[in-house]
Design goal:
The chain is of the alpha+beta class and 115 residues long. The protein has two helices and seven strands; from the N terminus they run ββαββββαβ. A four-stranded antiparallel sheet has the order 3-4-5-6. Strands 1-2-7 form a three-stranded antiparallel sheet, with helices on one face. The radius of gyration is 14 Å and the shape is globular. It comes from Streptococcus sanguinis SK72.
């Protein structure tokens, strides 16, 4: 999947785009790790039961030029894409996703617009 300027996950309530004033140090301060090629990556396990180890892997990658990003939600192995918004069975996981993304919006990493 190529880097995009805005991402809207299937069935998600919001579209996310990079904030125009995002800085590299802001990404590092918010636990984004710099990869070998210079991109910034954030990985979180979205679990309905905390510390259970069962959940979906959220991975956000911002390119090194800070002009594009990707958001993927996969199974725990990271191999198969999952749509957590398709079913109301994943309500807790959806709320955890929105909470994490809202915290990144508050820190001027992303902007969100309703779909």
């Amino acid at each position: 999947m190529a880097f995009q300027t805005s991402v809207s996950l299937a069935n998600c309530e919001y579209t996310y785009s990079l904030h125009p004033n995002v800085k590299k140090f802001t990404l590092r301060d918010n636990t984004f790790a710099e990869s070998k090629v210079g991109n910034y990556e954030l990985s979180r396990l979205l679990e309905s039961v905390p510390n259970s180890g069962n959940g979906f892997l959220l991975k956000i990658i911002v390119n090194k030029d800070l002009n594009g990003f990707k958001i993927n939600i996969t199974d725990k192995s990271g191999l198969r894409l999952v749509n957590i918004f398709k079913s109301e069975d994943h309500h807790i996981i959806q709320q955890k996703f929105y909470f994490l993304m809202d915290s990144l919006v508050e820190r001027n990493i992303f902007e969100k617009t309703p779909q």
